Structure formats: structure tokens, C-alpha cells
Amino acid sequence: MKKLTLILLFIGPLFIFAQQPKMDIRLYGGIHSSTFVYRAENVDADMLIGWQAGGAFRVSRRKEFFEIDITYVNSGITVAPNEDADIILEEPVEIRLHSLEIPMTIGYIPVKTTFFKWYLYGGLVSKFSLKGKYTYKGETESFKPSELHINWYNLGARIGSQVDVAFLNFDIGYTIGITNAFHSRVRTNTHALQFSVGFLF
Predict the structure, then answer these.
(1) Residue 73: count of CB within 10 angstroms of its CB
(2) How far is residue 184's CA from residue 180's CA, in Å, rounded to a whole number?
(3) Full-model pTM
(4) The domain at 21-200 falls in which architecture?
(5) What pLDDT, on a 0 to 100 scale, did the predictor assign at position 14?
(6) How far apart are the C-alpha atoms of 54 and 194, rounded to whole Å?
(7) Are the beta carbons of 193 and 32 closer than 8 angstroms?
(8) Angle 55-59-65 (CA atoms, 0-180°, nearest 5)?
(9) N or C end: fewer C-beta atoms under 10 angstroms in the chain?
(10) In this structure, are residues 99 and 124 in contact, taking their beta carbons and an 8 Å threshold?
(11) pLDDT tens per residue, the chain (201 residues)?
(12) Are 95 and 131 in contact (CB under 8 A)?
């Protein structure tokens, strides 16, 4: 009986540890494209290109995982003279939009080995618009989101996939806006594709 108790004392913690969730911290950066699609006739979509950087906390157990991120997003577009009939320009103007995204996702791990892991996920993204900047005739000024009728908060739905190779992480995700991007009666859908490379800690 004493031997059995000693064996359980030594082996028991191994089984308990095996059931513990694995926690990872992920720091990453990458590039993205965002598209504003207007539900109005004779209005072309606007595409913005930019970069993002952030960090994430991921908890996985067996084949399931949960992740929450904080991402700074910097997007830009250049408007040429006579490109927009509502804006009279003598020279091109560069507009940079800044925002903070907080995605919360859950997912499944189809492949899980010591060296390689593959993740599939989906969830919601809360997006908070920050002050932007525009450059015109060599001068740079800042503006509030409300000055361009941009909603300060937007909600999106995201699907994507991640791959862990040792301590490296590769992530590609697609987000479609749920709420209207602008303060307008015209419905404006947003579509964003992000690719990031990160390190696991």
C-alpha cells in the first residue's frame, strides 16, 4: 500500500501537468490591405495599404485554443488631383488612418507536434479609430476620425489561420466589417486582409 501511494505521488503530478493549458505570448508585425466598399451607384471602392504591429496572449488545451490580441494598425491612401469630384486638389494628398484593434478568437488545432502546429480560428474584432494624419504640399497635419465621418468604434468578424514553426509564428486573417464604417446613410462595408510574422515566448 505504501509503495502504491509513493508511485501515485510521483506519477500523479505528471498527469496533472499534461492537462494544464499551454500559454504563449506572441509579438508580431506585418502588412495588410483594407478596402472600403460603398453601397452606392457610381462610387468606386477605396483600397488602403499599410502595416500593423502588436502582441497576443494565446491559451491552448488539447485541440482547442483561445487568443486575445492588441494590434496597432496604420493604413494609407493617396488621393490624386481630380480623382474625387468632392475634393479640389492642386497636388496629391496622402492620408494615414490609425486605429487600435482588439481581436478575440477561438479555434481548433488540426496539427499539433513539438516543432509544428497549425491553427484555424474565428472571432470578433473591436476596432477603435485614433487620430490620423494627412500630408499635402509637404505639410503634415493631424485630424480626428469624426472630421472624415469615420466611426470611432467598429465591429468586425475575422477568420484566419496560424502556423507555428518552432518559435516563429505566421498568421493570415480576413476581416469583414459588421458595422457601418462611416457616419452615413450609405452602407460602407470594410474588408481587410492581414499577414503577420511573429515570435513566440
Answers:
(1) 22
(2) 8
(3) 0.84
(4) Beta Barrel (2.40)
(5) 47
(6) 12
(7) yes
(8) 110
(9) N
(10) no
(11) 555 454 544 455 444 445 579 999 999 999 999 999 988 777 788 899 999 999 999 999 999 999 999 999 999 988 877 655 556 667 888 999 999 999 999 999 999 999 999 999 999 999 999 999 999 888 899 999 988 889 999 999 999 999 999 999 999 999 999 999 888 767 888 999 999 999 999
(12) no
Q: Nine-digit cell at 179?
A: 458595422
The most distant pair of C-alpha atoms in the chain lies apart, rounded to whole Å, by: 91
How far is the C-alpha of 155 from the C-alpha of 179, rounded, in Å?
A: 6
Q: What is the pLDDT of residues 75-115, one digit of tens each?
A: 998 887 765 555 666 788 899 999 999 999 999 999 999 99
Domain boundaries in the chain?
A: 21-200
Amino acid residing at 37: V
Strands, E assignment, the chain: 22-38, 46-61, 64-79, 93-112, 116-129, 132-136, 139-143, 153-165, 168-177, 188-200
Q: What angle do CA 40, 45, 51 make, to 5 degrees?
A: 145
Please name which of 66, 136, 39 lies closest in space to residue 96, comparing C-alpha atoms: 136
Alpha helix locations (H) across 35-190?
Answer: none
